[in-house]
Every structure is written in C-alpha cells, then in structure tokens.
Amino acid sequence: MCSLFDADDHAGLERFVEEHGIHHPQQLIFGRRRRPTSQVSIVTARHGVPTVENAIWHLYLQRDGDGWKPHKKYWSINSNWKKLGQRPEYRKSRCLIPATAWVESQNGKNPVEFCFGDHAPFFFCGLYKTWGETVSCSTITLDAHPDTKQYHEKSFPMIAPDETDFIERWLGSDENTAVFEPYLHPDKEVAGYPLTVQPLTRATSTEYAGPRQTV
Question: Which sign, positive or negative, has the C-alpha torsion 112, 116, 120, 122?
C-alpha cells in the first residue's frame, strides 16, 4: 500500500494542475515523503468546479476538542478497490491527489521509489470525507501489477489516466460507478511516461541506493 508520497514542484506539479483547469493551484502543499495523517493537497469539485484544497491523509477522523484528528481504531490512509462498492464516498465523494512519486516496501524492507518517467506529475485516485470544515482523504489501492509484486506483493495505487473525460467523470456528481470498472487495474504508463523504480537507503529517505530503471 502507498504510505509515503511526493508532491514535488521541481517536476512542475503546479503547472500540471493548472493545465488541467483546476482552480487555486497556488494552494498546493509541496514536499517529499508526505506522511500518513499529515496535511496533503487534493482536488475535489464539491463546490462546483475542480479546486485544490487541503485534507488530512486519513479518511476516518474523530473528535479532538473543537477539531478533528485521525481515528485511532480505523487506519484509513488507503481504500481497497474491492470494498469501493460498499463506500458511499465512491459514489459521492471522489477526489484526485496530485503527486510526483510514491514509496513502497516489502514488509518494511527494501524500499523503493516509484514514479513515471523522471518524476512526471500525476494524480492518485482517492476518496474524501468532510467533518465540518475539515476534509480528510484516502488513496485507492488496486491489486499489484505482476511486474511490481517483487516490490510490494499486495497492492498498487490507482492512478488517474491523463484523460480530460476521465478526470471530469471522476470529480463529477454521477453516482454510476460502472464507468470506472475498466480503470480498476494497475497501469504502468501515464501520459506516455513509463513506470520507473529506484531503490532507497530507507523508506523515509530521499537518498538512493541504486540506479533508476523502467519496471
């Protein structure tokens, strides 16, 4: 499962978001190795147009005084695709999460960084919830691709194809999710960029332990 990801503007993430007609790209939160339960940027159309807003990367929250914090009993940074049909958020509260890379490891060992090409921007597909004025989110995970099982045997994040029609439908209000079924499989290419992988010295590090190669 994806438990660390990058939103690095050195790869032109803000320009990428602007090119997709998304409002308020200046609100993007940048940084490498974004961690679970931290504030991250997401894109929703809940106010009528695709807009960048901030969310807690942990779908289920609980009360914390006058605010909200990640729920202790429900670890929910990822949402498995097999349970999407049970989630009202899949029908009503879909989001996109801008990113440039993510980190995986096999049982906490041999961490690697995945990206497309040389860190080309992309969108994770995700879900969001609102808790008063607070927004939370999760990334959707699919079954692992046969070529990525050696790095993480169980899952692969759902990546949005770089298609205007898909993005509009994903962020739209149509509750018919059947149109998304063809996309519920891992894809090793986005916008012509191949999936690449590079070993890390440790999962939270930005230091590499070997060369980058195409998966």
Answer: negative
Neighbouring-strand partners of residue 54: 41
Class of domain 4-214: alpha beta
Look up the pTM and report it. 0.96
Nearest to 104 by CA among 9, 206, 197, 214: 197
Sign of the Cα pseudo-torsion (188, 183, 14, 205, in order):
negative
Q: Where are the domains of the chain?
A: 4-214
Tokens of 172: 């739209």
d(CA 33, CA 7): 8
Instruction: Please say if the pLDDT value at position 1 is more than 80.
Output: no
Cα 212 from Cα 197, distance rounded (Å): 6
Q: What is the pLDDT of residues 85-132, one digit of tens each?
A: 999 999 999 999 999 999 999 877 899 999 999 999 999 999 999 999
